[in-house]
Design a protein that fits this description.
Rossmann fold, Dna Ligase, domain 1, 20% strand, four-stranded antiparallel sheet, alpha/beta
């Protein structure tokens, strides 16, 4: 029996629907359940062919468990090794190499020195930074947000240099990105499952959170194809099995704003029933595919094109 498990936190509607949908299919040799962990011993199998990870970004113990499970052959969705290494600034850098439009972005050192460091630890960092060049490149207004992490935590709109300095002083040890504001005409949030299933959702980030999926943007076929191509290209290079890509359209050009969301919101009360049904069906379909193709004793993880080409010594782009 090949077991598919889901590892989750406070969310309820998606995990329950995911398990119920798989088990109601009555596929011979495949069952789904909540992941249960009562011990984690080095080099020992988790007992799962596939695990959907919805929470390890917040719980390091779970990330360690998943890496051990992957080492023993479990297909973890998403790859916990890449997820541990990835962050938003790198994703923007990668996008510039694969012809995906992104806002102009720079990375800023933390305002407060990290623990166990001193000013001597930053011997290679110029002080002050070349703020004039940074401001000329980014422009104002702009957004400042953590270079890693998810959600809308510690996100600031900054209107001028002094506003930036004032708000940067509040960020402590966080490493921040400063990013050009894209004044968009339309905005979309796009699920991508298995690197092949794409669902494009009109989205209005300026609305209150519970109304963000209430948007009446109506892209034509050509625009849908353009956005689908960008979503697939991003996930092909990153290697994410379960991700969302946010696209802001300015003058018809889709700019990738946020595309490092390996545990994206999938609660029915947030995304709405139509989008919820799509993500449950796509996620269960892909998880079953991964379970059916699972080979004991092999690496069953998904690795992105960037990593694979690097490992093979091939031209990256």
């Amino acid at each position: 029996m090949k077991k598919i498990g889901i590892l989750f936190g406070k969310e309820r509607s998606f995990p329950e629907a995911f398990i119920e949908t798989i088990n109601n299919k009555h596929i011979d040799g495949i069952t789904a359940e909540h992941v249960r962990i009562d011990k984690v011993m080095q080099g020992e199998s988790s007992g799962y062919a596939v695990i959907i990870d919805r929470i390890s970004q917040d719980i390091p113990f779970y990330r360690g468990y998943l890496k051990n499970a992957a080492l023993c052959g479990t297909a973890v969705i998403n790859n916990p090794f890449w997820w541990s290494a990835d962050e938003k600034f790198f994703n923007n850098c990668l996008a510039t190499k694969i012809d995906v439009p992104v806002p102009k972005t720079v990375i800023l050192p933390s305002k407060v020195l990290p623990a166990d460091t001193s000013d001597q630890s930053f011997s290679n960092l110029a002080y002050p930074l070349d703020w004039e060049s940074i401001f000329n490149y980014i422009g104002f207004p702009a957004y400042m947000k953590p270079f890693a992490g998810g959600g809308w935590k510690n996100v600031y709109k900054v209107n001028d240099p002094q506003d930036l300095f004032n708000k940067h002083a509040e960020t402590g040890e966080l490493v921040m990105m400063l990013q050009e504001e894209i004044f968009f005409d339309e905005y979309y949030r796009c699920y991508c499952i298995g690197g092949k299933y794409v669902h494009i959702m009109p989205y209005e980030p300026r609305n209150p959170h519970h109304l963000r999926y209430v948007a009446d943007f109506k892209p034509d076929k050509k625009r849908l194809e353009l956005m689908t191509d960008i979503v697939l290209r991003i996930n092909k290079y990153l290697g994410y099995d379960f991700n969302t890509v946010e696209l802001a359209l300015r003058d018809g050009i889709p700019y990738a704003i946020d595309f490092c969301n390996p545990a994206p919101d999938a609660e029915i009360t947030s995304v709405g029933k139509e989008n919820f049904d799509w993500v449950v069906n796509a996620a269960t379909t892909f998880a079953i595919e991964k379970a059916q193709s699972y080979e004991e004793g092999k690496d069953n993880l998904t690795w992105g094109e960037y990593v694979k080409r690097s490992a093979d010594g091939k031209k990256l782009f």
